[in-house]
Amino acid sequence: MTTLQGIHHVAIIASDYRRSKAFYVETLGFQAVDENYRAERDSWKLDLRLPDGSGDELFSFPDRENRLAGVEPVGLRHLAFKVADVGAFAAYLNDRGVEVEDIRIDPYTDRKFTFFRDPDGLPLELYEV
Asked: Are 58 and 81 contained in the same domain?
């Protein structure tokens, strides 16, 4: 039987490639694995990885519109990251100028979680495991 084995990566288009690269690498701690400029598309592509092997692809494209218009647009709702201690990671982000929502408890799992945003306003979640 064919089965999915996990999430390989999530692709993100940044409005300011350098700013988002610094956020994902320097603030969130992703490892930059491979970076390429694609002249035919006037686009950068950066492959990022976390210690568990999951990854992000960060792209730049000229003149892209923001798909996050509206309160709950159809599409990807948010990207959630596993952390050992939501409070500690939220404090770390706050110390770096990243605004983090109040920590809440998931009523179904009794686990802590909170939300914050990347430089383009992409909703990101910290979920305690």
From this structure: no
| The token pair that represents 55 in the structure block | 């990854």
In a domain, 24, yes or no: yes
- 38-96 pLDDT per residue, tens: 999 899 999 999 999 999 999 998 877 666 655 555 666 789 999 999 999 999 999 99
Q: Are residues 54 and 18 in the same domain?
A: yes
d(Cα 102, Cα 86) in Å, to the nearest integer? Answer: 10
- Residue 102: domain span: 77-129
For residue 86, CA distances in Å to 3, 17, 54 come to 31, 27, 19
d(CA 89, CA 7): 23
The SS3 of residue 31 is: strand
Instruction: Answer yes or no: pTM beyond 0.70.
Output: yes
